[in-house]
Specification:
Elements (H helix, E strand, L loop, with lengths): L6 H38 L10 E6 L2 E6 L5 E2 L4 H6 L3 H9 L3
Antiparallel strand pairs: 1-2, 2-3
């Protein structure tokens, strides 16, 4: 004799299936976000925000400064502006003269 599942059993299995599908979709969404983030990094990393050309890293007194190989734009990473602002005025003038 085959017992027909009660409403509670059906509801339980439907809920479990929904949760499983939801987890699968969430995992897929995270993977897509990671892939997109990696693609964007590959596309933009060490490229000038202004013209898109390659950035060259210059080491000046322990500060890594990115300079565009085409438009000569200077780009500072987080904290680098503060490090430059700590230089004495004469050192600042010398520092900015390397970009002229």
């Amino acid at each position: 004799m085959i017992d027909k599942p009660s409403e509670h059993e059906e509801e339980y299995f439907v809920r479990k299936e929904f949760e499983r599908i939801k987890e699968v979709e969430e995992k897929r969404r995270r993977e897509l976000e990671e892939n997109e983030k990696e693609r964007m990094k590959d596309l933009h990393y060490m490229h000038c925000p202004k013209c898109g050309m390659q950035l060259v890293e210059i080491d000046y007194r322990g500060i890594k400064i990115d300079r565009c190989s085409a438009c000569d734009g200077v780009w500072l990473d987080a904290g680098e502006l503060e490090a430059v602002s700590r230089f004495e005025t004469t050192v600042k003038d010398k520092f900015f003269s390397i970009f002229k």
